[in-house]
Amino acid sequence: LIRRILTKYKIDFACNYFDDIIVYSSSELEHWKHLKTIFEICEKENIKLKLSKCVFAQTKISFLGYEIEKGKVSPNNANIETIKKLQPPTNVKELQRFLGSVNVYNKFIPQYAKLRYPLNQLLKKDVKFNWTNECQDAFDKLKETLTTKPVLNLYNPDVTCHVFVDASQKSVGAVLKQPDASDILHPIAYHSRTLRDYEKNYAITELECLAIVDALDKFYYYLHGQKFVIHTDHAALVWLKNVKNLRAHHPQTNGKVERVNQSLVTRLKCKVNSTSTKVPWTKLLESVTNEYNLTPHSITKYPPAYLLLGTLPYDSPIGQNSYYEPVNEARNLALQRTIDYHNKNKIRYDARFVDKKFNPGDLVVYEEFHYPNTRKLTPPFSGPYEVIKQCSEVTYEINKPNPLTKQATQIVHISKLRCFHSPDKLKLSHE
After folding, report:
1. Which residues on adjacent β-strands are paired with residue 418?
2. pTM over 0.70
3. For residue 283, how far is the Cα from the chain centroid?
4. Rounded to whole angstroms, how far apart are CA atoms 164 and 172?
5. 155-242 CATH, one of 3.40.50.2000, 3.30.420.40, 3.10.180.10, 3.10.20.370
6. How does pLDDT run across 263-291, given as a tens digit for each residue?
7. In angstroms, rounded to a whole number, what is the distance separating the alpha carbons of residues 114 and 170?
8. Tell me, what DSSP letter sits at residue 169?
9. Is 139 exposed, middle or buried (0-12, 13-18, 19+ CB in 10 A)?
10. Distance CA 294, CA 304 (A)
11. Residues 6+ away with beta carbon under 8 Å from 287
């Protein structure tokens, strides 16, 4: 109700949370004018205010567990004291209660995910609760970080944002900062999270790029529509600034464009060779393109031009003036027919190609990726390696060391694996 009323009167100097209203101003004189406006609105909308629950003209307020003062925000003292008195947990429930209390203020804690990583391991299923020295250190550091009363600046939409990102083998993190009048950067918010299992296989460049993507997603509401600067200590990511859009003369990296070009080339060959005068293909290109756009596709059953524009700009060249469904219905039918066609192709493929299943303990060889400058006589497979477990229907974990992540195992796709046959079994018997 309060929010609807503030929106109705287009109030831009107040906000609310349920029935709590905050009025903010840049000067005391302006503040009294804003309060007068709010009082008039409350009287007009029959909203009653209880004097004992109101405070006016404050330079510092406590709101929703935060203390807000002169463009800065920090955790509430009462909540910090409560967290400070917490004892080390003795079971999972107490650990969850502690992490829940701390997580409210995670944006105040640098490298939060990295600090709580040892505690996260105790929350996993089928893991015995064992409070180690590493867990105690993480517990103490989290409490210490909050009890030092970290302070964040409030976001200013008129100031350029700076995003600092970093990544490790366990987590990714980011800091959002903005400069003050002296061009000194101050933190607005911290963000970090632990890596998922499959993300731990990423190379360091991919992890640094993941940190950027994760930061842009987390700080979306701060950065959307604004100019901002990204800071990273990984020089290999600088090439992102130099990425150029593909041109028509270089369609090789766009499979859809290349496939359309193949269809057009086939039609142009037929047109050019069907005349004795050998008309140059450049003069035939426009008519061939129109024919392609106006001819019903073999899968969707609709001309591409109709699905794109909702109408046919010219009469169909093959004399098909049949009735087509409304464009929205036609697009849905075309999508469904495309999906059905893909499913039929999958059935045909699965009937001819069956991936072999492996069991834990089986020996396999791994098909290596060979770069263009690889020697011709380099073995195509490496191994043998032992299958540790099946992670999904198409992935297995094998004891092949990962040189990028320094882990002792790798999760690989089944298409890269082959059964290992011992040389002794391959010997021909001369008996």
Report:
1. 365
2. no
3. 46
4. 11
5. 3.10.20.370
6. 888 888 887 777 666 778 888 888 888 88
7. 7
8. S
9. buried
10. 7
11. 271
Which pair of tokens denotes residue 63? 């709101």
Element (H, E) at 230: strand 228-231
With b meaning 16 or more CB within 10 Å and e meaning fewer, what string describes 52-85?
A: eeeeeeeeeeeeeebbbeeeebbbbeebbeebee
What does the angle CA 424 – CA 425 – CA 431 come to, to the nearest 5 degrees? Answer: 90
Q: What is the DSSP letter of 246?
A: -
HSE of 318, CA atoms in CB hemisphere, 13 A:
12
| Cβ atoms of 190 and 106 closer than 8 Å | yes
d(CA 13, CA 69): 16
Q: Which fold has domain 75-152?
A: Alpha-Beta Plaits (3.30.70)
Question: What whole-number distance in Å separates Cα of residue 171 and Cα of residue 157?
Answer: 29
Q: How far is CA 282 from CA 289, 345, 367, in A?
A: 11, 36, 46
Does the pLDDT of residue 318 top 60, yes or no?
no
End-to-end Cα distance, the chain? 94
